[in-house]
User: Fold this.
Amino acid sequence: MRWKPRLRTVLLIINLVILLLPLGGIGALRLYESELVRRTESELIAQGTLVGAAYREELIRQLSPGDGVRSPKGGAGSREYGLPVTARPVTDDGPAQKYHPTLARLNLAGETIRPPAPPPLPPATPPDPLAVQAGKGIAPLLLATKDVTLVGIRVVDFNGKVVASTSEEMGLSLLNREETSRALTGEYVSLLRQRLSDKAVPPVSSISRGKTVRVFVGMPIIHEGRVVGATILSRTPLDIRKALFMVQKQVGIAMAVLVSVVVLLTLFTSITINRPLTALIRQAERIVRGEKGAAAPLENPGTHEIELLSQAVSTMAKTLEERADYIRTFAANVSHEFKTPLTSIRGTVELLQDHLVEMSPAERSRFLQIIADDTERLDRLVRRLLDLARADTLTSGDEQTALTDVLDTLADRFAKAGVRVSIDYRSAVTRVHMGRETVESIISNLLDNARQHGGDGVEVTIAVAEADAGRMLELLVRDSGPGISDGNRERIFRPFFTTARDRGGSGLGLSIVQSLVTAHGGTISLEPSEPGACFRIRLPV
Assistant:
């Protein structure tokens, strides 16, 4: 069978998707914003590597023989240049590794945003002369780079003094900044600082960036295992608004996808909930108009609850139709049953009114007896109808009845009416789960039915035994009458059906028995039997 989700499952899916749409959008924007920061960091790494390499080459040219300043591999009497590397891992230009990649690692979600960079400090001593000469050599490169990339670049010597810069900080010390002090130990540093600006937020179409943070990168310049300087770079990353403006086409496509998702969710809700409910409403309207067969289980109910509701509505409509048919048939039968004696009474009364004086006492007595008999018939019919109504509305209670007492009492009563009743107890369990009056009504109706069809000399045998299903007591009520023809076997439990109307039968006895037995969880059926009729009754013990 095809899986049908429950209504709460459909609503949960819809609510989760609706919830994930904004959360997913926020998360995507946050990830994109972090990616913009990392992209800026990657650009600074590339530029810092190039500037650092250029500075190192200029510095190596300055370290010529005879100046007294050499690398560690220089001759005797020369002093070492730069600072030893103390940070790990080390990125140097030695032959130990072929590649020395530096990867971007900033993340807005986990990165601490530091205060704005403090201003440079005046140096206690002037910068290293060799570093100043190397800085002058790369100054044109820095200015050309700034014009294109808008990156702030500062090159410091191994003492932290600026020897080359894209701003007016020449000769000042940057050791009071974290990125500088850590880079001079040989460590790559990247961090975020607050960006304070008194200018208005720039438009998205301008080259200015309105981001409130700035990326700082410190890259050590290492030569032969010693830090000879550092490159300090900074730039403001793209603002999310400006970045989205630059990819507005892609953003439009994403919005179209989101709208499509919402439309699909709407269609999904309509198919699984709205359309089946609309079909049920139309079925209910047809039922109200009295159309037969208007309600049937929906072929595509959508959800489990709507499937159950559709089946319930279909069952209810079928029950109402059957009840309506039953009421119409019942009303027609009651009308017919009442019409015959009433017609007889009316005709007899008219005869008495017109010819009372002319009639002999015997004729008057005969007509009065007709009225009395028809009145008795009407009274018996009314009592039977009341018994049937009570049987149809009866519910099982907690009463228990000893079957032996009821059967013995009824056997004595019907023996006086000419019906011989013999009882065969085959079970030690004889108590049934119903009231004594109900048990008497069931058995007496069956005995009276046998008397009406078999006459005064009929014999009835009642066998009491435990049913195979357990917890049920089985009664076989068999009579010696003429039996029931094959053509009438399917109609004997219908109200008002009887073949003994001339002997006072109303056709309600077996209907009352069936209603009483069914109300207590039992069953009654007509079993094949020759001669006579045999009813099998199962009652709860």
